[in-house]
Design a protein that fits this description.
- By secondary structure, this protein is α/β, with parallel strands linked by helices.
- The protein has 3 domains: 151 residues, DNA polymerase, domain 1 (Orthogonal Bundle); 166 residues, Beta Polymerase, domain 2 (2-Layer Sandwich), CATH 3.30.460.10; 241 residues, TIM Barrel (Alpha-Beta Barrel), CATH 3.20.20.140.
- The protein contains 25 helices and 17 strands.
- It has a 5-stranded mixed sheet, sandwiched between helices. Strands 13-14-15-16-17 form a 5-stranded parallel sheet, covered by helices on one side.
- The longest helix has 18 residues.
- The chain is globular and about 80 Å long.
- The model has no long low-confidence stretch (mean pLDDT 93).
Length: 588
């Protein structure tokens, strides 16, 4: 297991122990262990496991070191498996309900025998949850809302997590001797923010061994189909994965077809028909003539000259359309005129803003976050811990904030890291639109990220006015997660997005794509038009640990779906350009 997977297991153990009502100190040892593992490099973990010196790391005792070593070397831990088996599976499932934590679950299980979502829903309907000590009507209403959201989103998965599951499978498929080409398709390839399942496509002349291998993948929990041309499985994570196997000459056509989207494919088929052609997963063949599209394609066999998607689009008089843009939103018209943008690449990103440390609710220190940013090759890193009103996140008051600013200045002056650190703050937008700090405090920061963390239920007009008032503050550099949505958990609060974009442009404020896989906010659907009007974007991981700095990749995926280029994104600028830009903002 890599360190992220080990940390996830340790956090799971802590959660399971809390469900059992174990000693809080024991629980805290595992959560602390998870944070420590995330802060270590992969190389250091390997070295310490090999030398049996993990218990030399502060915060990791002998027993925890042994468990981490087992997970690192074998990927399994008997203690963890037995712990999971000791609890009704429904209890763990209850954790999927937003706002329902281990303590509440234990109380409901102990007092009402609730061990499934169905029982919880019934208890809410009967008013039994509201009657429990420490719960009440508001808690019961939130639980009911959480259950409804889970039912609406339950079959979908975050893109970032689905991608992490799919990549090892795709890599392994490509290594099989029978496989000539392999790609993932569907909404994963189009980089939708959430996906329903995984689609893999393989070109091969010998499909059966590939299908046999696929159903035996180590994460497969159930096999639902196992044939020569298709295999379907359910993975341990709950996500379904489908494998389609096609002859090599049909691969490019099948790849385009199964990538989608439906609207894009319908428009492409219409374009083909207008040229006397029939386009399908089988091929691009004359529309007239005997037989189905499949039969015509099979007759043509290996005679087709179309071997790549670039050639396929060219055959229909189009510029190549990247998978992210295939949503039926004008991409074909733009491709016909060769007006598609050169999309942002991960390599274009020079730094990231809006990141947290242990000063508020982050899991790593300032130096640990800077070191991780340096390893990623970033020229700069923006630290923006929470402000004082975010009590739940240990928000900084004026004294702690200015002490952090001083610490960042000392770190930069020391020359310890190549990565420069900018001192910022994720400053709460109060319910009336004022900011959480006075202007003389904000003036001492390199940048300010304004964010809503309270009063989500304000009506649309009030919420919009509130945010616009904050954008008009001359110290605000960026607006964080503009709608406050949490994917698969809750929709965003009500705002007039167009008015907020107008206000951001008018005041020279950047709106972020919050690259946390749970947010990806502002939504990609708004960005094409907003960027055309002059709005700048910053791709911010909202990282609360060193490993979460990698979230910027999900933000790039969302930016590409929004037709954004390198020129539209502030964080593609060099360090010198960024210093100049922020200094100019502060001097306004």
């Amino acid at each position: 297991m890599n360190k992220a997977e080990i940390a996830a297991v340790l956090n799971d153990i802590a959660t399971l122990l809390e469900l059992k009502g174990e000693n809080p100190f024991k629980i805290r040892a595992y959560t602390s262990g998870a944070r420590i593992v995330e802060s270590l490099s992969e190389e250091e973990i390997d070295q310490r496991v090999a030398a049996a010196t993990l218990d030399g790391v502060k915060g990791i005792g002998e027993a925890l070191a042994q468990k981490i070593g087992k997970l690192r070397t074998t990927g399994k831990l008997e203690f963890y498996e037995k712990l999971k088996a000791s609890l009704p599976p429904g209890l763990v499932e209850l954790l999927q309900i937003p706002g329902v934590g281990p303590k509440k679950i234990k109380a409901m299980h102990d007092q009402l025998g609730i061990d499934t979502i169905e029982k919880l829903q019934q208890a809410c309907t009967e008013g039994k949850i509201a009657a429990l000590a420490g719960f009440g009507e508001k808690t019961q209403a939130k639980i009911m809302e959480g259950i409804a959201n889970r039912q609406a989103y339950g079959r979908r998965h975050l893109w970032f997590e689905a991608f992490a599951t799919a990549e090892p499978i795709l890599t392994a498929l490509r290594k099989l001797p029978q496989v000539k080409q392999a790609e993932h398709a569907g909404s994963l390839r189009r980089r939708m923010e959430t996906v329903g399942d995984l689609d893999f496509l393989v070109a091969t002349d010998d499909p059966q061994p590939v299908a046999d291998w696929f159903v035996k993948w180590h994460e497969v929990k159930d096999v639902t189909a196992h044939g020569e041309t298709k295999a379907s499985v359910r993975l341990a994570s709950g996500i379904q994965a489908d494998l389609r196997l096609v002859p090599p000459e049909q691969f490019v056509f099948a790849l385009h077809h199964f990538t989608g989207s439906k609207d894009h494919n319908v428009a492409m088929r219409g374009r083909a028909l207008a040229r006397g052609l029939s386009m399908s997963e089988w091929g691009l063949v004359p529309a007239e003539g005997e037989g189905t599209a499949k039969e015509k394609a099979e007759r043509m066999g290996r005679k087709t000259t179309i071997k790549t998607e670039e050639q396929l689009f060219r055959a229909l008089g189009l510029q190549f359309i990247p998978p992210e843009l295939r949503e039926g939103q004008g991409e074909i018209e733009a491709a016909e005129k060769s007006e598609l943008p050169v999309l942002l690449e991960e390599s274009d990103i020079r730094g990231v803003f809006h990141n947290h440390t242990t000063e508020s609710d982050g899991h790593n220190t300032l130096e640990e976050m800077t070191r991780a940013a340096e390893r990623l090759g970033f020229d700069y890193l923006g630290i923006a811990d929470h402000s004082k009103s975010s009590v739940q996140a240990r928000g900084l008051d004026e004294t702690r904030l200015l002490a952090q600013v001083a610490a960042i200045k000392r770190l930069n002056a020391s020359g310890k890291f190549k990565t420069h650190v900018f001192a910022g703050n994720e400053c709460d937008i109060l319910p009336d639109g004022r900011l959480d700090f006075a202007e003389e405090v904000l003036a001492q920061l390199d940048y300010v990220v304004a964010a809503v963390h309270s009063a989500f239920r304000q009506d649309r007009e009030t919420q919009t006015k509130r945010i616009i008032r904050a954008l008009e503050n001359p110290h605000v550099t960026m607006l964080a997660h503009p709608t406050g949505r949490l994917l698969l958990e809750r929709p965003g609060y009500e705002i007039d997005t167009d008015k907020i974009i107008d206000a951001a442009i008018a005041n020279g404020v950047i709106i972020e794509i919050n690259a946390s896989p749970w947010r990806l906010d502002l939504d990609w659907r708004h960005w094409r038009r907003a960027a055309e009007r002059g709005l700048w974007c910053s791709i911010n991981p909202d990282a609360h640990s060193t490993s979460q700095l990698e979230f910027f990749r999900a933000g790039v995926a969302a930016a590409r779906k929004g037709w954004l280029t390198k020129e539209n994104v502030l964080t593609t600028r060099s360090l010198a350009e960024m210093k100049k830009y922020l200094a100019k903002r502060r001097a306004r």
